[in-house]
Amino acid sequence: MGKVMPYKGVWPEIHESVFMTDGAFVIGDVHIGAQSSIWFNAVVRGDVCPIRIGEKCSVQDNVTLHVTHDTGPLVIGNFVTIGHGAVLHACTVQDYVLIGMGAVLLDDCVVEPWSIVAAGSLVKQGFTVPSGMLVAGVPARVIRPITDAERRNIEESPENYVRYSQNYRDAAEQA
């Protein structure tokens, strides 16, 4: 289990079904919904503003989730996959979104449902990723509507991570 810490007396609220690996940190005013997972070396730092993570979200290896005192909360909906090494800062990610590896989402940006932020993209402050679109680049721009295969991937990925979490739990019980 990762490290859970308070900040100024406020402890994270983590649903009992959440899976956290060693090396993950969850700090302060953070709520994490059912069947979500926080993977190796991820940092969820709700120290100066709240962070809300919905159900069946995967926060993968080396992801950083943070806020600053004057930017407002970081809100992540349900069924969101956040790829390895991504950085999300004081933004809103709605339901059924895939954030690619190494993507950076800046303050006050919004990612609408059924969207993909491509690996390595930079979503500028205040930018809105329209529902059903793929954005890519530095800075990110709308490339095209997502395909049916991408839509299925967005839908399947959260279920895959629930299964991976259970595999890790099972292996730990057998050890």
UniProtKB/TrEMBL annotation:
Record bears the keyword Cell cycle: no
Domain of life: Bacteria
Name of the protein in question: Acetyltransferase
Any coiled-coil regions, as ranges: none
Keywords assigned: Transferase
The UniProt record lists the keyword Lipid biosynthesis: no
Species this chain originates from: Chlorobium limicola
Single GO MF annotation: transferase activity
